[in-house]
Amino acid sequence: MDLRPTPWGTPLDVITAVRRVNKVLRSRFDRALHGLYLSYAQYEVLLLISTDRNLHAAAVARDLKISPQAVQKLVEKLLLGGLVETLPIDGGVVVLRITHDGRTRLRQAAQALGDTHGRIERLAPELRTTLVEGLQRVERALSRPLDGDWL
Question: CATH code at 79?
Answer without folding.
Answer: 1.10.10.10
